[in-house]
Specification:
The protein is an all-alpha fold. It has one domain. Helices cover about 80% and strands about 0% of the residues. The radius of gyration is 37 Å and the shape is rod-shaped. It starts with a helix and ends with a helix. About 20% of the residues are buried.
Length: about 210
């Protein structure tokens, strides 16, 4: 009920009290005194209701301001995290046999994964897994003690791992609402890794 409704209802009740008092023979002075008390009580009650509502409104405005600030901060952190993830996927593509570089990216992901979108987060974790598997496959492809056919199998698997890492780029870009990567851009990223991404057997043509 609004403060105005309370005042109106209380005023009606007060007037009824005055009428009853007059019919019972109470003096006008006593009636006026009772009316003054009732009026003061009504005014105080209305003031308390208005003050309480004002405090609630202020609290709601404060909470809304804090939520807006948090959303703004999270949005900024998300853009930075997606940019960082994009850079590190390129690092995974170039890591090849460098397991330390892969482990460093794994550690970075532990610190930043919550700022990524769900699809981007899933894609980067998968890319890290493929980078680790690729490093192992590249190492096996370098093993001269294996038959050429076996080395080629490891080489083929390493190239599949490489393609799986490339697949993580699109979810990272899409997850933050940036323009999608074009075919030429993806090709340029793949070429930028150069010989660092090729198995030894592929370089030898075996």
């Amino acid at each position: 009920m609004s403060a105005s409704s309370v005042i109106a209802a209380s005023a009606t009740a007060a007037s009824g009290t005055v009428a009853v008092a007059t019919s019972t023979g109470l003096t006008p002075a006593l009636i006026g005194f009772v009316g003054t008390i009732v009026g003061a009580a009504i005014a105080q009650g209305a003031a308390l209701m208005i003050s309480h509502k004002g405090r609630i409104d202020a609290q709601q405005r404060d909470a809304a301001a804090k939520q807006h600030a948090l959303r703004t901060l999270v949005a900024e952190e998300r853009v930075l995290a997606h940019q960082g993830a994009f850079k590190r996927i390129k690092g995974l593509l170039a890591a090849g046999r460098n397991t330390k570089a892969i482990d460093d990216i794994d550690s970075w992901m532990d610190d930043n994964c919550l700022f990524l979108s769900a699809e981007a987060r899933k894609a980067v974790w998968a890319a890290i897994g493929n980078a680790k598997a690729r490093a192992q496959n590249l190492a096996e492809s370098d093993n001269e003690g294996l038959e050429p056919a076996h080395r080629n199998l490891y080489s083929d698997q390493a190239m599949k791992n490489y393609g799986a890492i490339m697949d993580a780029l699109t979810p990272v870009v899409d997850g933050v609402g940036l323009p999608p990567l074009g075919t030429d851009e993806l090709k340029s990223i793949a070429e930028s890794a150069g010989d660092r991404v090729l198995p030894a057997s592929a370089k030898l043509g075996t």
